[in-house]
UniProtKB/TrEMBL annotation:
Residues 1-19 form the signal peptide. The chain crosses the membrane at residues 190-211, 285-305, 311-334, 354-372, 384-402, 436-455, 518-539, 551-570, 582-604, 624-643, 649-669. The keyword Transit peptide does not apply. It comes from Adineta ricciae. Keywords: Membrane, Signal, Transmembrane, Transmembrane helix. Residues 235-264 have a biased composition (Polar residues). The keyword Cell division does not apply. Residues 232-264 are annotated as: Disordered. The lineage of its organism: Eukaryota, Metazoa, Spiralia, Gnathifera, Rotifera. This is Heparan-alpha-glucosaminide N-acetyltransferase-like protein.
Amino acid sequence: MQFLLFYLFEFSIAQQIGGTSMESTHYDRRLFQQKQCYAPHQPKELDQSNYYITTQLIFRNQHDRLVTRVSSGAIDLNNTRPLGIDQASINITVDQQIVNDLTLYIQVIECIDCPYEVITQDLSSTKSIELTLNTKFNYRIRVELNPTSSCQDTLILYEHGYYRFDVKLSSTTNSTFQCLLTRQRSPNNVYIPLIVGGVILLVLFVACLVAQRFKFRTFLINLRNRVSDRVPPQESAQSYDLQSRAPVTTNNEADTSTATAKQQSAHEMSNVLVPRSKRLLSLDAFRGFTLIAMIFVNYGGGGYVQFEHAPWHGITIADVVFPFFVWMLGTSLVFSLKNAIDKDVSKKFLLKKIAVRTLKLLLIGFILNTRFKIDFAVVRFLGVLQRFGIVYGVIATIEVLCTRPKQYSLGTEISTGTNKAKQFLRLFRDILHFPLQWLINLALVLIWLLVVYLVPFENCPAGYLGPGGLHENGKYINCTGGITGYIDRMIFTEQHLYQYPTCRVVYGCKPPFDPENLFGALPTIFLAFLGVQAGRILAVYQTDVERLVRLFSWSILTTAIGVGLTAGTLTGGPMPLNKNLWTLSFSFFTAGLAFAGFSIMYILIDMLKWWNATPFQYPGSNSILIYITHLVFATYFPVQWQVVDTHAAHLAMGLWGCVFWIIVAYIFYKKRIFVVL
């Protein structure tokens, strides 16, 4: 039980910088002296043991501990000690008719396959206990005299609620107990600020659509031009047909057009806006939306558990942000490489550009890891941009080496044929024309499957996907992450991995584990390849119906495969959804969400043209710049500042951070400042 009390009372450091799939930034950097925190009443057999925590940082989210305060003695229902954010108090009392000491156990429901933990073994009618619990989690509580005399209940508590848990003798027999949970003071509804904020954002979005529908912006621009007597800028019309080609001009035509252009006045030329290279607005909007969601998560997400990463198995809103970026990496890659390959650009030149960009991503990611701790003896090597760079380097290299010129145009000449074989080729040419790419990516997936499920290591079995610690009653306490974690520890050593994985709070896992681990890059590459498949659909097929039918079909197929691999549970089955390990089921499931999300934006923006992608197109067209700067300036005013510790205040801070970077991205967009690697 020594590990138990250490686990229950240790500080949560899951919010430390770099602790999420995207580097979290909501923390307090105040250093303090090493401190001992003793449990007021240890279990009887542990009276001679000292339990304390040692930490070097105090984080804002100290409330992420499971049991944050324990006190024994006379019960005081009028306790006025203030509760913090996501905390509730429960007083456990024993009926006077029960004369023996009882043992109190608590199990965290989110801790899958974990045992009950002993809180105290001397609970009695003369010695009750008060617990302050973290309301982000749900609990099972059990009070036991012996295996045949016990009672248990499920605790679903809410912030700032005061509860009473009475243990009484059963009315039917004096040999069994009866547990009764009552509410002494009503809790807060922590979701009211989130609902209000969501309604406000929805109203603003609808107003934006209505204003665009009635051309309100055009009206304001024309009004400004009439007032200032200004010549309005003229933006060149440009099609979003991804198969379009620039018109071919002869030398004489080119000379004539050049001469004509030179005759235009400087005033006329200054009022012509030269558009950027042709972009798919819905893809920019989807990228921008994902980036803003990532900023909101990294800036605390209002302190809501839905915007934090799952402790281990399972999925939350925060868990889908990084996968969406990976999926869009593959989609965008098709557009950037297709034209270059069709124009017979040297593959050697393209491979050199890929290598340079990969090295830039790796270097920038490493530099971001050192922005608060420049100690090369313990610096973290892996990270978000490092994983992104590895995935980009591999998937782009595969596409360059395996794609032939005009390969995306093959098959269009048989579109009107009647032969069934030709019709089949036409129907699936986005897949059948790229067999080598499919074979290579499936081979990478097969390697991942064979290693994960067939290779044992040290005292850990093959196929273990758990977090170690308390999982499976502590049977594999040091097997955190299975073979995936073991590979990282062998290559990088524990000192250079992320020290506070998401499993530490709930499962009490001991070894360091990096969520952007090296071996997890293989299923991540496959997710990027599914994004490439979306890009091929957009490049090969020209009608909206053809594109959307295939995009939604892939969404249904990949989501079904992802859920099927978990046996329909998401947190169980042969391959649970797990972002830390980046399981193959996780890649399939998040790809399905990405296919669906992008398709919806494609309908609204590029098909129906009900929405011009504002404001998400601004951060979406400058994503790498906004990503880096939102991390670097996260602790500086006016990006963020200290607020009271409530969900409403943290939600306002998170939303303000999103608005701030949208404004910055808009300024860059208007000044035509775009940063690419």
